[in-house]
Write a structure and sequence with these properties.
This protein is of the alpha/beta class. 31% of the residues are buried.
């Protein structure tokens, strides 16, 4: 199973619990906040029309509409995420980033934040994002670097190994506290491009 396995991704985002758990990992991260870098990259382009693919709960979409006054369409493969985005007043639709239901050159900016690793055919997705961008438009993509959770996974493995050594009995010892460090190039919780 991979992050791009469609069934796995659907299951992970069928409720907001999985997304909330992912967000909590970064609650005490230090360094540059990639969400701010992302917002500024969109604002700098002065767009009229924006497409956000992988919109999640619609936080970013809502902010872009409110603060920049853009016309925005949000797309997510999870019906639950679309429902939550709509509750924020966002024009959100269920769809697939590999087969966008929009005309060519429809948007000034396309945002793909923390979702490209969930796409089975990245090349097809990128071609679709480029297709719906107007000439001279901007793709703002944010993703994690390849080993961004190495420390967390190493800690999780050591806890699992410790439990196995104790015969599967649950330890009463406190779990190690994770401290995420600033990434060499981007810091915060992702890489904005």
């Amino acid at each position: 199973m991979s992050f791009a396995d469609a069934a796995h991704v659907r299951a992970q985002y069928a409720t907001e619990d999985g997304l909330a758990a992912r967000k909590s990992i970064y609650s005490e991260a230090s360094g540059v906040d990639a969400r701010h870098v992302l917002f500024e990259a969109v604002a700098e382009a002065r767009p009229a029309r924006v497409l956000e693919v992988g919109c999640g709960e619609g936080e970013l979409a809502e902010r872009l509409i409110r603060e920049l006054g853009v016309a925005l369409v949000a797309l997510d493969q999870s019906a639950r995420m679309v429902e939550l985005a709509r509750r924020r007043g966002v024009d959100a639709r269920v769809g697939d980033a590999q087969d966008l239901p929009f005309e060519d050159a429809s948007f000034d900016v396309v945002v793909a934040a923390w979702m490209l690793y969930h796409v089975a055919d990245l090349q097809q997705c990128l071609e679709e994002l480029a297709r719906v961008l107007r000439p001279g438009g901007r793709l703002v993509a944010v993703t994690n670097y390849s080993d961004h959770l190495t420390e967390m996974f190493a800690t999780r493995r050591s806890v699992a190994v410790g439990a196995a050594v104790r015969g599967g009995e649950r330890s009463r010892a406190p779990r190690p506290r994770l401290r995420l460090r600033r990434a060499p190039r981007s810091g915060g919780h992702g890489h904005a491009a």
